[in-house]
Write a structure and sequence with these properties.
The complex is a heterodimer of chains A (about 140) and B (about 625).
Chain A (H helix, E strand, L loop, with lengths): L2 H10 L4 E2 L4 H22 L9 H20 L1 E2 L3 H24 L3 H19 L1 H14 L1
Antiparallel strand pairs in A: 1-2
Chain B lengths: L1 H16 L19 E2 L13 E7 L13 E6 L1 E3 L2 E5 L4 E5 L6 E6 L12 E5 L1 E4 L11 E6 L4 E6 L14 E3 L19 E3 L2 E4 L15 E6 L5 E6 L19 E3 L4 E6 L20 E6 L5 E6 L15 E7 L2 E8 L7 E4 L9 E5 L13 E5 L15 H6 L3 H8 L16 E3 L13 E3 L4 E7 L3 E7 H7 L8 E2 L6 E7 L14 E7 L4 E7 L4 E2 L2 E2 L13 E3 L3 E4 L6 E6 L5 E6 L9 E5 L2 E8 L12 E6 L3
Parallel strand pairs in B: 1-36, 3-8
Antiparallel strand pairs in B: 2-42, 4-5, 5-6, 6-7, 9-10, 10-11, 11-12, 13-14, 14-15, 15-16, 17-18, 18-19, 19-20, 21-22, 22-23, 24-25, 26-29, 27-28, 28-32, 29-31, 30-31, 32-33, 34-35, 36-37, 37-38, 38-39, 40-41, 41-42
The chains are: A mainly alpha (about 140), B mainly beta (about 625).
Chain lengths: ~140, ~625
């Protein structure tokens, strides 16, 4: 079973709901949505230098994955380990997409990803994660 | 008749006395001296950043190779003359276009068969233009646009109406292939427009390189511009040697010195290109620059740039004519750029070097029957556009290929510049190689500052001769296009770029540069990586540069315009510093030389973005004009 399928299955088995206080995650979601739109435009706009190239497709996929991960992080009820894995993957996705966008000379997407990194920092230092950790630790004892 | 002679003389005197620049861009290289220089000054280094697209045209004549039609290579320099922009398309049609808005005035279709008879792609480098010195009122074809085809047919079309000129050839068409006396396997393709001087067209041709040992000799045909009647021919290969070799043709543009009535021709290498064991005669005009009497075709002087060429180092661009001031003394010079990256500055009256040309020892051949020249000409000043030794293994490519590049390099024969092709091992590491150095666009010159600007590529290839049995066994499958038979020679030929299994060049960047020289001293003014390369859409660092095809032009205001690079960008460069001042994305690599002109008070810069499969698979039918906003 792939990691993605494992995550989806695990999450589907839980009762999750929107965490309206996960500001960082939702900010990343908005940024990645804009990024996805930019990436799609770059991929499908004819003769823009990167249209229909594997590189442009890569950032389409990566921004879509960032969007999915950030939406997940905006939910409550996720196990701690899922949050940690998603946080790490999200950071790698933001940095990797920024790097790819740099080499695609899509500088607006680079800027967006760096805003996303700031949002990610907001996300990880927010009380939400600590709250989730303490709750789960308490449940285990 | 007398009036015609008087008028023609007056025109000649005018041409001789006038500066070597013109407001029109009426020839392939801007003027007969091949300077690619414009006196336009509206666009300057300060305001060029404001350039915007003025108009765009798509001709519809483009092929990516699908659908049974060969792909298109569109390297056509437009002409601006007679108040009109004239374009040739790779489907061998002429477009007459309004220079101010890009609207089509008329088109002319040659109905060429659109088959890749001599080249792997449908290809053209443009049209030529002539106008009568004594125009007769009310008569057609006093101004003529010419287009050649892959099938070796030259069409003459009235420049005002787009109708065929019945008085030229047979009903407006001259079949140049009727003069193809030696080789009936392929036509004398007319991909480069003729050079027009006074009332004569000078016609060179392109063949099917690397296919045969014996080919048509490199004949230039001079024909009457109005009728197509043959005036004279010039053969670069002596009659007695034409049974064992051929080509040494002129497939690039030519230049003319109206002052002395001299025609300067860049002559390519003799066939077969990579094995000379059956053509050991000196063939002194093979791979040479040669000066001819424009009226008779008689040789005035000739200078061989490569002895016994075994590398396909065709002399491939029109010599640039320029009077320079060496040590305060005016010298009538020409500059011949080359695939081998050497810049030959010669006295154009005599062919003698302005800057020294020395004979340097060259490696011997290890191929049975072959005898490489023991020396080759070398020019140290101006500094060659590429290094004398190959750039070395690119560590990134080597690492990503797990050492493939360095291991392969050890298996190849490399004894420096002019290492001959070999039968042994995996072949010879060849640098420079056939793609150059400098390609057919050549350089541009500012005749006021004697600054010469040229783009150059840095490409490493592997040359390998194969016994006939080896050739027959290997020249099939997906890499068949890398094999060339050289039929009639004892050996076939395999050529490939030295790249890793991932397609990354195994040699160190930069892969392309743009350089400027002071011709009065030969000094290099600046040299910078030029263009960018892309892989999977990702742009590589600017310091890597790009392989280029096409050429720069220079304006009096000190701006260089150039396309040429793999990244489908067109750029404006500061002549003084080499800095990029402006760039714009077009639909495909702009492998044609750009032009600039003024029309209704506005300066335009026009790029043809057609692409060339040598650079990238991207092709287009786009013509785009830029101008400053109102």
């Amino acid at each position: 079973m792939s990691l993605v399928a494992f995550l989806i299955e695990g999450i589907a088995a839980m009762a999750v709901e929107i965490d309206r206080h996960a500001y960082g995650a939702w900010l990343i979601a908005i940024i990645s949505l804009i990024g996805l739109a930019l990436a799609l435009r770059g991929y499908f706009t004819p003769n823009d230098g990167i249209s229909f190239t594997p590189g442009a497709l890569l950032v389409v996929i990566s921004t879509a994955l960032i969007l999915a991960a950030s939406v997940l992080l905006g939910l409550t009820g996720l196990p701690v380990w899922v949050i940690v894995v998603l946080d790490v993957l999200l950071l790698l996705g933001l940095l990797g997409t920024a790097l790819a966008a740099w080499f695609l000379q899509t500088y607006l997407l680079v800027a967006l990803m760096f805003v996303g990194v700031i949002a990610w920092i907001v996300h990880v230092i927010s009380p939400r994660l600590f709250h989730a950790v303490s709750t789960n630790v308490g449940a285990g004892t | 008749m007398i009036a015609r002679i008087v008028a023609a003389s007056a025109l000649g005197a005018l041409a001789a006395a006038s500066p070597s620049v013109a407001a029109d861009w009426s020839t392939f290289n801007g003027n007969l001296q091949a300077q690619k220089y414009s006196t336009e000054t509206q666009i300057t280094p300060d305001n060029v950043k404001n350039l915007a697209k003025a108009w765009e045209l798509h001709t519809g004549d483009v092929s990516d190779g699908s659908g049974g039609k060969p792909s298109s290579v569109w390297s056509a320099t437009p002409l601006f003359v007679n108040g009109t922009l004239y374009l040739a398309t790779p489907f061998y049609r002429i477009f007459a276009v309004d220079p101010g808005n890009g609207k089509v005035k008329w088109t002319f279709d040659t109905h060429d068969g659109l088959k890749a008879l001599t080249q792997p792609a449908l290809k053209t480098r443009g049209v030529a233009y002539w106008q009568s010195a004594t125009p007769q009122a009310g008569q057609p074809c006093q101004k003529i646009v010419y287009i050649g085809t892959m099938e070796a047919k030259l069409f003459a079309v009235d420049a005002d109406t787009g109708k065929a000129c019945a008085g030229f050839g047979v009903n407006g068409m001259l079949d140049v292939n009727l003069w193809n006396t030696t080789n009936n396997k392929w036509p004398l393709s007319l991909l480069q427009p003729p050079t027009v001087y006074k009332d004569t067209l000078f016609i060179g041709w392109a063949g099917k390189d690397w296919a045969n040992a014996v080919n048509s000799p490199g004949t230039i045909f001079a024909v009457d511009a109005a009728t197509g009647k043959l005036k004279w021919t010039f053969d670069s290969i002596p009659k007695e040697d034409q049974v064992k070799t051929g080509t040494a043709n002129v497939w690039a543009s030519m230049s003319v010195d109206p002052d002395d009535n001299m025609l300067y021709v860049p002559i390519s290498s003799p066939s077969p290109n990579f094995y000379g064991g059956d053509r050991k005669e000196k063939l002194p005009m093979g791979t040479s620059v040669t000066a001819l009497d424009a009226d008779t075709g008689a040789v005035i002087w000739s200078r061989q740039l490569i002895h016994h060429d075994l590398w396909d180092f065709d002399t491939n661009s029109a010599p640039v004519l320029i009077d320079i001031k060496k040590n305060g003394v005016s010298v009538p010079a020409l500059v011949e750029s080359s695939k081998q990256g050497l810049l030959y500055v010669l006295n154009r009256k005599t062919g003698e070097p302005v800057y020294p040309i020395t004979e340097r020892p060259a490696p011997a051949s290890d191929v049975p029957g072959e005898q490489a020249s023991p020396t080759q000409p070398y020019v140290a000043l101006p500094e060659p556009t590429i290094s004398d030794t190959w750039p070395g293994v690119f560590p990134l490519a080597d690492a990503l290929s797990l050492g493939y590049c360095s291991n392969e390099a050890k298996k190849l024969r490399y004894d420096g510049k002019f290492t001959p092709p070999t039968l042994k091992g995996d072949g010879s590491l060849t640098y420079p190689a056939s793609p150059g150095g400098v390609e057919w666009g050549g350089g541009a010159v500012d005749p006021e500052t004697d600054t010469y600007v040229v783009n150059s590529s840095s490409v490493v290839q592997i040359y390998q001769l194969l016994t006939r049995a080896d050739y027959d066994a290997k020249s099939h499958g997906k890499d068949a296009s890398d094999y060339f038979p050289q039929e009639g020679a004892p050996y076939g030929f395999h050529i490939t770029n030295f790249v890793s299994p991932q397609g990354i060049p195994c040699w160190n960047p930069p892969y392309g540069t743009l350089s400027a020289y002071n011709l009065d001293t030969g000094a290099l003014l600046w040299k910078k990586p030029f263009g960018e390369v892309q892989q999977w859409g990702f742009y590589m660092p600017e310091s890597w540069g790009s392989v280029t095809i096409g050429s720069p032009i220079i304006t009096k205001s000190g701006v260089i315009f150039i396309g040429a690079s793999m990244d489908s960008r067109v750029r404006a460069i500061d002549l003084k510093t080499g800095d990029v001042l402006w760039k714009s994305l077009v639909d495909a690599p702009a492998v044609a030389s750009p032009i600039t002109y003024s029309y209704n008070g506005k300066q335009y810069v026009v790029f043809v973005a057609g692409g060339n499969a040598i650079l990238t698979p991207t092709v287009s039918d786009q013509v785009v004009a830029y101008a400053l906003p109102n």
